[in-house]
Structure formats: structure tokens, C-alpha cells
Amino acid sequence: MIKFQEEGKSEEEILRTIYTWGTQADIAAALSISVRRVKYLSKKYELKKNDKYRVVKRCMNCGEQTHISNFDTIFVDGIPKTNLLCCWSCKREYNKQKYMNKVIEEHWEQERIKREIGTKEDEIEGLRALLK
After folding, report:
1. 124, 117 Cβ separation under 8 angstroms
2. How do the domains of the chain map onto residue ranges?
3. Tens digits of per-residue pLDDT, 93-107?
4. At what angle do helices 11-18 and 35-44 cross, to 10 degrees?
5. What CA–CA distances, in Å, run from 111 to 56, 106, 120, 125?
6. Beta bridge partners of 57
7. pLDDT, tens digit, 9 for 90 and up, residues 54-99
8. Residue 50: Cβ within 10 Å count
9. What is the pTM of this model?
10. H/E run at residue 78
11. 25, containing H or E segment
């Protein structure tokens, strides 16, 4: 801070440029001052908090605007597609539907096998009756 002031920059200009770095805790650590001091200076110079952590995006699936941290990459054929972002709730619904389809498919397969076993047993019973 003192180095920048020697170059002729005011405290306000310095803080305005530094405020784009990250959170108040990051700024306090970089300047080796307390967070309370950073908060005081931000109120003094009417600086807004950095908005890069408050980014919202629109989900491609449901169309809702949610925080960027609620998004996850979509995997198409095992390859992550980072440009296709889907919110967690949509991805959860997708995985739930996928699981339900898998369970239904397994039950369908089990029922089909049971029916085939039943028909084969009926055929065996008919053949045994013919042998007697």
C-alpha cells in the first residue's frame, strides 16, 4: 500500500483496483491487514463487494436462473461437455429417471424370464403327460 502511495496513487484508487481480486478476506490477506479494516475502508470509499462469486446462469434444461455453483457439466457418451450446463436439480431428476428406467428394465427382464420359465414348465408338463 505504501509502495503504491509513493507512486502517486491514492488509497481509494488502490482499493478500487484490488477490490476486483476476490473476497474481502483475500484482500485482507494480500494487504496483511484485518478484515474489519477492509470492511471499514470499503464503507468509507463506498466500494461494492466483488460480484464474480455471484454469477447466475440459466439452466439449459428447465430455464431457471441459478447460481453458477449449482451447475454441473453434462457427460455425453462419457465425454464432459462444459458448454452444456445443467443445474443440479435437473441432473438429479435425470439421474432419478435413468435409475427408474434401469429398475423397470430389470424388472421387465425378470418378468419375461419368469414367463419363459412358466411356458417351458407347461411344455414339460404336457410332454410328461404324453409319456404316461
Report:
1. no
2. 2-52, 56-131
3. 878 888 888 888 888
4. 110
5. 47, 9, 14, 21
6. 66
7. 567 777 777 777 766 666 666 667 776 666 667 777 778 878 888 8
8. 15
9. 0.36
10. none
11. helix 24-31
